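hey so i finally got around to running the thing on that chain from the lab meeting. sorry it took forever, my laptop kept dying and i had to restart like 3 times. anyway pasting the input first so we r on the same page abt which one it is
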Amino acid sequence: MIWLWILLAAALTILGIFWLGRLPAASRPLAGAAVMLGLAGYALQGSPALPGQPVAKAAEPDGFGEAITDRQQGMANRFGPAAQWIGMSDGFMRTGKTELAAQTLEKGIERYPDNVDLWVGLGNALVAHGGGVMSPAAALAFDEAAKRDPSHPAPPFFAGLAMAQSGDLKGAEAVWNRLLQRSPADAPWRPDLEMRLTQLRQALGPELPPESPAGP
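ok and heres what got predicted. didnt touch it at all, straight out
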């Protein structure tokens, strides 16, 4: 049935070209051949009997079009010397360019080697580049951040997050619990930390009692 409509449309096209378009007689064979060539091509490659299929919209990168948020949970100095490097790194992270994000922070560390925020950001970027796994390089970055300022909350917070993502739930619980103990009651990161700790402890479940020694 579909081919009947296609042939009818072709006939109407030819009639329109010949009479309504007042095409000169010398050009009519060429126009007719063009229409027939189009029909032949459609017959070879077209599939008019198949149902229509809408084209799916390409997925946007994660976070694209959203307002940039503080990736360091209020723990970073957004107006210090590290701000521009963290801002550029965040932009690369949002478009999935994790390697560029890490390289940007490495450049920042070359200028400000004692900046805690840059070391923490580098650890986060390396974790993201490793697919959410705490790599030795990421662990080293968090350790370097903690050495610069042992009282800073960001190194243990994000180190614990990376440990939890990597499957080391007990290690993450220990790191976060120590951070919670020394966090002020009005700290901006405390509610998020408490929520994550609760979820982590639920995932761990009750501790199993130690096994009794085997009898004689």
